[in-house]
TrEMBL record:
GO cellular component terms, semicolon-separated: membrane
Keywords for the protein's UniProt record, in alphabetical order: Membrane, Transmembrane, Transmembrane helix
Primary site of residence: membrane
Membrane-spanning segments: 12-38, 59-87
UniProt protein name: CD225/dispanin family protein
Organism of origin: Stenotrophomonas lacuserhaii
Superkingdom classification of source: Bacteria
Pfam family, one: CD225
Cross-referenced InterPro entries: CD225/Dispanin, CD225/Dispanin_fam
UniProt subcellular location: Membrane
Amino acid sequence: MNATTPQIPNHLVWAILSTLFCCLPLGIVSIVFAAQVNGKVAAGDIAGAREASDKAKKFAMWAAIAGVVVMVLYAIFVVALGGMGALSNSGY
């Protein structure tokens, strides 16, 4: 790379972490787009690299949001089942 090549973030770390800890399908899509960024920059496709970077960031963000939503819904489900179990054992 020369000095005129812009630095475009590939968001690969965020993509990997969101895949491991949040939502596997969206995280994999994010990893695919993140892996394309450096190759497109090297080929001189700056617009394509920016687009791939934006998509990688978007899918990693949606994977993180989906992971949090699933965790919250799971917690609500566990608390609801625990409450119903406590009511059924208390004789009410």
